[in-house]
Each structure stands twice: as C-alpha cells, then as structure tokens.
Amino acid sequence: MVKAALFDMDGVLAFTERYYNRRRVEYLRGQGFELGDVDDWTGVHDDESWERCVPGDAALRERLRAGYNRFADEHPTPWGELGNRRAHATFVALRGRGVRIAICSSSPRFLIEECMEALDLGDLTDYVISGDECVAHKPDPEIYLRAMRHLRVSPEESVVVEDSPTGIRAGKAAGALVCALRQPDGVLLDQREADLVMDDLFELVDLVGERRVASLA
Fold first, then answer.
1. Cα dist. 90→61, 86, 185 in Å?
2. Which tens digit of pLDDT belongs to each residue from 116-126?
3. Which of the 8 DSSP states describes residue 9?
4. The whole model's pTM is what?
5. Which helix (H) or strand (E) covers residue 181, if one does?
6. Sheet harboring 177-181: ordered strands across?
7. How many whole angstroms separate alpha carbon 180 and alpha carbon 132?
8. Sign (positive/negative) of CA torsion 127, 132, 133, 138?
9. 115, 85 in Cβ contact below 8 A?
C-alpha cells in the first residue's frame, strides 16, 4: 500500500530546467564566455553544474556564481508560466486518500518555497528537503531516505516522482517505486530506468487509487 509520495520539483512540479539553462547561458555569455555546446544540467545539483561549467578555477567559479545569483534575482523564475497546473489538484487528491507528501529537490530551499507558494502547495505538503541540506546529492538516495524516515514510511510504501535519469536512479537506489513524468515537447530525457512513465501528474492519483502502483513493485 502506498503511504507516501515523494516529488522532485524541477521537471515535475514546475518545468524549469530549460529556463534555468537559458538564464545561466545568458549570464555567462554576458561575462564574455564563448559557449558552444552547452551541457545538460537537468537533475544535477547546483554545485556540480558550476564545476562542470567552470572547471579548474574555484575562485573564478565562485565569483561567477555569486554574480549569477544576483542576475537570477533580477530575472526571477516565472512560476506562473512554468508551474505544473496539475500539481495542486494532484496533491489535494493524494491527501484525500491519506497519502503523505514530500518535496525532495536538488534546488535551494528558497526556490522550493517560491514554487510551493506560487502553486499553493504549502498546506498540502508534509515535508520539504533541499539537496543543500544533504551530504550526498542525487543519484545518491540520501534525500529520499531522509524524507521516508521523517514521514515514517518504508521504501516499499513510497513512490517517487522524477523526471531526470539522475533523480530516477536516486529513487531506485532508495528502494522506492519510481514514476517518471514525461517532459514537454523539446525536452528529451532518458526515463527508461523508471518503473512507469506518466503523461500527466494526476495519473499518480489513479494509480494509487487502483493500487496499480503497488502491483508494479
């Protein structure tokens, strides 16, 4: 029986990945960086993405990162445009079935809180954890295992909802059933390691209600 649903944020509750990538590229080009093929940072913790972007020079990397944070403050995430419009209804329906809900995102806590406020998820969420609060980052399962412990559920009683291969592997390593949310047109992610791929977030409610999720484990 599913007792808890653990949601990634970016690519699940809000389709932010392309926006974040474009914003970072715009900033770096403004700093004189000539960027050719840009890495896909989807599902990657911020520390790792900056190490990939500016390897070998920690001082320069931190200066650029600080400047980018100011740039991001001036160009805030448009949650109203990027938020998953099915998120609120999905959370309401899951809570109505007695399912506990956690948001487990690699993003900083302030971004998670912005998303929750924009989508009106605060009163529907039992636990929130940011990758910044973990020792190890996805694909390590720490973030999901900590959420399960807080919610007092076992991996067998949990379903993880993810988008990226990195997040899917984290959920699988935690021992949970993993559902991947298919991405909008133009976003190509390898989701083959997920137990199930959904076209609509609300499908999770139907799966829990029909107990099909448990049967897939």
1. 39, 6, 22
2. 999 999 999 99
3. S
4. 0.87
5. strand 177-181
6. 127-130, 100-105, 4-7, 158-162, 177-181, 196-198
7. 23
8. positive
9. no
